[in-house]
Design goal:
By secondary structure, the chain is of the alpha/beta class. Helix content is 66%, strand content 10%. It has 2 domains: 11-20 and 31-356, ABC transporter type 1, transmembrane domain (ABC transporter transmembrane region fold), CATH 1.20.1560.10; 378-617, P-loop containing nucleotide triphosphate hydrolases (Rossmann fold), CATH 3.40.50. The protein has 23 helices and 10 strands. The strands form 2 sheets. Strands 6-7-8-3-9-10 form a 6-stranded mixed sheet, sandwiched between helices. It has a 4-stranded antiparallel sheet with strand order 2-1-4-5, covered by helices on one side. The longest helix is centred in the middle third of the chain and has 54 residues, at 257-310. The two termini are 61 Å apart.
Length: 618
């Protein structure tokens, strides 16, 4: 197959995507120390998954041990039947030995059946419990990680961690562990039993063991790299699919379908190539193991036959050895198939362990403080912040916002307006200095107290799947229907809600697609009003609205901003005019500060912005 044409933009997309991923790159994986650290991290995660189920896992091992004993008994019974049962019948017409062998064979078969059934049922319970706990842990971890993490770790990679990686681990817990443990038991047990029965024949049969070790060592090395590559490529596929479908409107609007198909085709080809390479290695391993097994069987058959001719051993012993040889090599061949699952699950564990080990940058305080007298007062004390070391956003901001004051932040893009809002919401912590709410450092407030005291509304006006009432109730979980309706009435949202087919029980559909932009914003305002925070942040909350919708929202704004501290970020100065105070920012510094009317009269930068805005309305 010819690979799709190479595309520079595709390469740059992959470069950005891989850089954004908080995982090791394949280049780093070539480094022995990186591989060692990855494996150690994965083992820690696996150990933490298994620890709560130690007793159940121990019981499963005992069940497998019982199954192993039953399985290993059969060749010995065959040997005894051939060497003692048949001569007893032919020489003395005595069937008791063969009857005893048959009864023992039936008992062994029954034990094997019971153990196998018990193991399948119990292992499924343990595996599902482990996977259930891991899914929850990964989800909770993603929720606790900061906005900074999610801004660099794409939604597609989040989806990959909870979908394909979890599926790989599920396959391991459901289909692989019993093969691994049982095969290990079989190999050890068979080796011991053969040495006890006939040491010389056992030594001959195990002469091929070094060949298996060499083949296994080679396969372990090359398959680990191949399966990591396969996991990387399938993760990139999921990432690009999720992001392309998430931005499907932009894709269609800018006619990027052909380019997206080309990029997806290249990623799909990379995944196919990686998978094919893994299967080729698997074929070599499986064929090699089977060939070595046949070679060992031939050697045992020839040497055993020679020993029988010399009178040094019996036919039953050779028959038992041949059965044991089959039971020795068949599990090894199954292990080759299991190794595919193991490598895939190992790669998945490495990625998930990377998420679980990710440092929580905005951490919950160990001993949170309470705000004694809530009033919504904000203070920035020499606050320094940067997203990148070489790009300082706030070089040292000092700012005091008294409780109940509405402050508007204006300035060019990159001046630091949204950064200030994110620091107040504690989506980030400052690199230096302190942000205080009512005299308490935000880093000392519990998450619940902070979210109760500070609410941020953005231009996205995000609504969740559910009804209008459920979306408003998010502001105060457990609120009554009367409280929800009152919040909607206060901000002026009740008029359009009552006109909807099911009123407050109308389903808003995905991202609130059933409502207009203005209606979605009013629902978000109702949610904020119900939350009743001391500090409300509006980050371009009206930028996506048309003029009629903006006027409707402006009336709601005056209501929800009353008697609370507010920070408004807006390019539309119609929103800024309701502020008590305007701060003009430039390169993270306040260059103008005062009531909007006085700044207009001063003839400074805000006055020029105001003049340009008025001209745009003509």
């Amino acid at each position: 197959m010819t690979a799709p044409a190479h595309d520079d933009k595709h390469v740059s997309w992959r470069g950005r995507s891989e850089q954004a991923d908080a995982e090791r790159t394949s280049a780093e994986l070539d480094d022995a120390e990186a591989i060692k650290e990855l494996r150690s991290r994965s083992r820690r995660l696996l150990g933490s998954m298994m620890r709560p189920h130690k007793r159940s896992i121990a019981a499963l091992v005992l069940i497998l041990l019982g199954q192993n004993v039953a399985t290993m008994t059969a060749p010995i019974l065959v040997m005894y039947g051939i060497d003692h049962g048949i001569p007893a019948i032919t020489d003395r017409d005595d069937y008791s030995v063969m009857i005893a062998v048959a009864v023992a064979f039936a008992a062994a078969a029954a034990l094997e059946y019971v153990c196998m059934r018990l193991y399948i049922v119990q292992s499924a319970k343990v595996g599902n419990a482990m996977l259930y706990a891991l899914r929850n842990r990964v989800f909770w971890k993603f929720q606790r990680l900061s906005v900074a993490f999610h801004e660099r770790f794409t939604s597609g990679r989040v989806t990959a961690r909870q979908s394909s990686d979890m599926e790989s681990i599920r396959e391991l817990t459901e289909n692989g562990v019993d093969d691994l443990v049982l095969a290990a038991m079989n190999v050890v047990t068979i080796a011991v039993v053969m040495l006890v029965i006939e040491p010389l024949l056992a030594v001959v049969s195990l002469l091929t063991f070094p060949l298996m070790l060499l083949l296994g060592k080679w396969f372990s090395r090359v398959s680990a790299i191949a399966y990591r590559k396969a996991r990387e490529t399938v993760a990139l596929l999921i990432v690009y699919f999720v992001e392309s479908m998430g931005g499907v409107r932009a894709v269609q609007a800018y006619r990027r379908e052909d380019r997206d198909r080309e990029i997806f085709g290249r990623l799909n080809y990379d995944n196919r190539f990686a998978q094919a390479k893994g299967h080729q290695q698997n074929a070599i391993m499986a064929g090699g193991m089977r060939g070595i097994g046949h070679l060992a069987t031939v050697v045992v058959l020839l040497f055993g036959g020679w020993q029988i001719m010399l009178g040094n051993t019996e036919i039953g012993v050779l028959a038992a050895f041949l059965l044991y040889m089959k039971r020795f090599f068949d599990p090894l061949n199954e292990l080759v198939q299991f190794y595919n699952v193991l490598q895939s699950a190992t790669a998945a564990l490495e990625k998930l362990s990377g998420v679980m080990d990710e440092k929580i940058e905005v951490a919950e305080p160990e001993n949170p403080k309470r705000i004694e007298s809530p009033r919504g007062e904000l203070r920035f004390e020499n606050v320094r912040f940067h997203y990148r070391e070489d790009q300082v956003v706030l070089p040292g901001l000092d700012l005091h916002v008294p409780g109940g004051q509405t402050v508007a932040l204006v300035g060019a893009t990159g001046a630091g307006k949204t950064t200030i809002a994110k620091l107040v919401s504690r989506f980030y912590d400052p690199r230096g200095g302190t942000v205080r709410l009512d005299g308490v450092d935000l880093r000392d407030l519990s998450e619940s107290d902070l979210r109760e005291g500070v609410v941020m509304i953005t231009q996205e006006n995000f609504l969740f799947n559910g009804t209008i009432a459920e979306n408003i109730e998010l502001g105060r979980p457990g609120a009554t229907r009367d409280q929800i309706v009152e919040a909607a009435r206060v901000v002026g949202a009740d008029e359009f809600i009552e006109e909807l087919p099911d009123g407050y029980d109308t389903h808003v559909r995905k991202r609130g697609g059933r409502l207009s932009a203005g209606q979605r914003q009013l629902v978000v305002f109702a949610r904020a009003f119900l939350a009743d925070p001391r500090v409300l942040i509006l980050d371009e909350a009206t930028s996506s609205l048309d003029i009629p919708s903006e006027r409707l929202v402006q009336r709601a704004l005056r209501t929800i901003l009353a008697d609370r501290t507010a920070i408004i970020i807006a390019h539309r100065l119609s929103t800024v005019e309701i502020a008590d105070r305007v701060l003009v920012l430039e390169s993270g510094r306040i260059i103008e500060d005062g009531p909007p009317e006085s700044l207009i009269d001063s003839g400074g930068q805000y006055a020029e912005l105001h003049r340009q805005w008025e001209d745009s309305l003509v």
